């Protein structure tokens, strides 16, 4: 009934408009159209005049055409045009008509941000703050100009930051080179110390060799002297045995026996050679001990320095620190980011759909993607084209299948390696959540944490760079925190997925 009443009102209004236009066009009792006045720049021209331009007298919202007095007559006199709606002449009539009420769009609803006609303003937008399109344009243009200035300033600041980073490249290279010089000096010093220790050890050996040779030389001289004496004694014994007289033999033997010395042969023992085996063992043990000490000392101390340098937190902005943490899904959606997967990174087993927002593992069927340095070759992974850095970011993803994982990583992740560190579950700069045959887990640096959930189809990822947190939420039903990581993000991160099995699927959701 309400629709019928509104139609009747529209017909009556159109009839009144038609009668008024007819009277204005012909005047009382005057069937001859009036001659058009002199044209002004702001006048609307008749769309039916072919010989020359004429001022439009009315615009038809049904035909979306403007007519002069002469060409308006069929709308005034022919019954077929009685349902057409005539209004004062309009510029761009086809662009300024309400699709629902077929009335001129002359107002702008400031609350809903859309152009409305009079009927829209009194019906769907009743009670909303509205202004004329001219006034609204002034406000919007002022807002647009302000936004434009902010963007120009941000773009200029970005360019300055890029220039600063580029200028720092030379500083980084020179600084590292200076450190390399110092490191080389220290290792040269270490090598000199090792060389000095080597020389000292060899000198000890040379000293031992000289002393051992002198010992051997002394023993040899003694043995040679002893050998001469023994030969002399042997000659005397031979001479004695040839004596024919028994009395002479016995007397000479008695005299020889008194002069005979011990014939025992001394042992040729070089007692200093017994230290060589011990010396070798001492040098070997000391060398191994020093090598272990050097390696462990350098490794531990350098790792401490490296960790202290890499754990430089992102500077927290005052505006961000004053914002409360999001609690409801509506709060998180304020930080929603619309992302797409980078086709140059997708594994050849992945089918890309829905404007690069959805990936499906089609193993064993491969897709003929061109070779690219950024493409994952061994691990079936893919990364987003857009990165996330500074501030707060929220992303929602849908997972399907046992083996589907989603998380974040750095751009530096290895794309071609087969090691576990090339997978988002096995390095210290990736964090992910997913399901395997044993259930749902989160992973970071090879360590897994079991999640006490039975099934997850939709995941929410929330990143707060200033606070250094990465949170995974189950948004399949009610929003529920699964796990929160504390992470010192040192560079931008990318959303990454690992689909290990056939028919695994991940889709980045775009919540409007």
From TrEMBL:
<dbReference type="Pfam" id="PF00643">
    <property type="entry name" value="zf-B_box"/>
</dbReference>
<dbReference type="Pfam" id="PF00622">
    <property type="entry name" value="SPRY"/>
</dbReference>
<keyword id="KW-0862">Zinc</keyword>
<dbReference type="InterPro" id="IPR003877">
    <property type="entry name" value="SPRY_dom"/>
</dbReference>
<dbReference type="InterPro" id="IPR000315">
    <property type="entry name" value="Znf_B-box"/>
</dbReference>
<feature type="compositionally biased region" description="Polar residues">
    <location>
        <begin position="1"/>
        <end position="18"/>
    </location>
</feature>
<feature type="domain" description="B30.2/SPRY">
    <location>
        <begin position="319"/>
        <end position="512"/>
    </location>
</feature>
<keyword id="KW-0863">Zinc-finger</keyword>
<dbReference type="InterPro" id="IPR051051">
    <property type="entry name" value="E3_ubiq-ligase_TRIM/RNF"/>
</dbReference>
<protein>
    <submittedName>
        <fullName>Tripartite motif-containing protein 16-like</fullName>
    </submittedName>
</protein>
<dbReference type="InterPro" id="IPR058030">
    <property type="entry name" value="TRIM8/14/16/25/29/45/65_CC"/>
</dbReference>
<dbReference type="InterPro" id="IPR003879">
    <property type="entry name" value="Butyrophylin_SPRY"/>
</dbReference>
<dbReference type="InterPro" id="IPR006574">
    <property type="entry name" value="PRY"/>
</dbReference>
<dbReference type="GO" id="GO:0005737">
    <property type="term" value="C:cytoplasm"/>
</dbReference>
<dbReference type="GO" id="GO:0008270">
    <property type="term" value="F:zinc ion binding"/>
</dbReference>
<dbReference type="Pfam" id="PF13765">
    <property type="entry name" value="PRY"/>
</dbReference>
<feature type="region of interest" description="Disordered">
    <location>
        <begin position="1"/>
        <end position="36"/>
    </location>
</feature>
<dbReference type="InterPro" id="IPR001870">
    <property type="entry name" value="B30.2/SPRY"/>
</dbReference>
<keyword id="KW-0479">Metal-binding</keyword>
<dbReference type="InterPro" id="IPR043136">
    <property type="entry name" value="B30.2/SPRY_sf"/>
</dbReference>
<dbReference type="Pfam" id="PF25600">
    <property type="entry name" value="TRIM_CC"/>
</dbReference>
<dbReference type="InterPro" id="IPR013320">
    <property type="entry name" value="ConA-like_dom_sf"/>
</dbReference>
């Amino acid at each position: 009934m309400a629709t019928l009443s509104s139609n009747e009102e529209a017909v009556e209004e159109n009839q009144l408009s038609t009668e008024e236009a007819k009277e204005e066009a012909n005047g009382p009792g005057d069937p001859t159209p009036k001659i058009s006045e002199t044209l002004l720049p702001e006048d609307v021209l008749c769309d039916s005049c072919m010989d020359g331009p004429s001022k439009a007298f009315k615009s038809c919202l049904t035909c979306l055409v403007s007519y002069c007095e002469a060409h308006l007559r069929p709308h005034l006199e022919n019954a077929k045009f009685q349902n057409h709606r005539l209004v004062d002449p309009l510029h761009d009539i086809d662009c300024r008509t309400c699709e629902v009420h077929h009335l001129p769009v002359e107002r702008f609803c400031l609350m809903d941000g859309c152009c409305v006609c009079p009927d829209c303003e009194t019906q769907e937008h009743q009670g909303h703050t509205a202004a004329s399109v001219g006034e609204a344009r002034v406000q919007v243009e002022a807002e647009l100009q302000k936004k434009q200035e902010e963007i120009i300033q941000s773009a200029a600041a970005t360019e300055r930051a890029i220039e600063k980073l580029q200028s720092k490249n030379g500083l980084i290279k020179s600084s590292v080179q200076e450190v390399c010089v110092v490191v080389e000096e220290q290792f040269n010093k270490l090598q000199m110390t090792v060389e000095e220790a080597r020389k000292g050890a060899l000198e000890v050996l040379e000293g031992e060799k000289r002393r051992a040779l002198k010992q051997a030389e002394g023993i040899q001289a003694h043995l040679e002297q002893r050998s001469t004496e023994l030969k002399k004694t042997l000659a005397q014994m031979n001479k004695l045995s040839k004596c024919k007289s028994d009395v002479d033999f016995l007397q000479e033997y008695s005299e020889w026996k008194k002069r005979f010395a011990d014939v025992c042969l001394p042992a040729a023992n070089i007692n200093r050679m017994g230290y060589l085996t011990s010396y070798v063992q001492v040098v070997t043990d000391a060398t191994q001990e020093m090598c272990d000490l050097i390696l462990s000392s350098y490794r531990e101390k350098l790792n401490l320095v490296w960790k202290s340098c890499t754990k430089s937190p992102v500077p927290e902005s005052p505006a961000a620190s004053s914002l409360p943490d999001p609690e409801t899904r509506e709060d998180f959606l304020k930080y929603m980011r619309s992302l797409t997967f980078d086709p140059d990174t997708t594994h050849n087993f992945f089918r890309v759909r829905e404007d690069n927002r959805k990936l499906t593992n089609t193993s064993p069927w491969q897709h003929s993607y061109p070779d690219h340095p950024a493409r994952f070759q061994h691990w079936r992974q893919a990364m987003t084209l857009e990165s996330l850095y500074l501030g707060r970011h929220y992303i929602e993803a849908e997972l399907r299948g046992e083996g589907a994982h989603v998380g974040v990583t750095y751009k530096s992740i290895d794309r071609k390696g087969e090691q576990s560190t090339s997978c988002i579950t096995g390095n210290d700069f990736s964090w992910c959540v997913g399901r395997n045959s044993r259930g749902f887990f989160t992973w970071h640096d090879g360590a897994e944490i079991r999640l006490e959930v039975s099934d997850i189809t939709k995941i929410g990822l929330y990143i707060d760079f200033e606070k250094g947190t990465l949170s995974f939420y189950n948004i399949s039903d009610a929003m529920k925190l699964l796990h929160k990581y504390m992470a010192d993000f040192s560079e931008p991160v990318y959303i990454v997925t690992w689909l290990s099995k056939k028919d695994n699927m991940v889709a980045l959701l775009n919540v409007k």
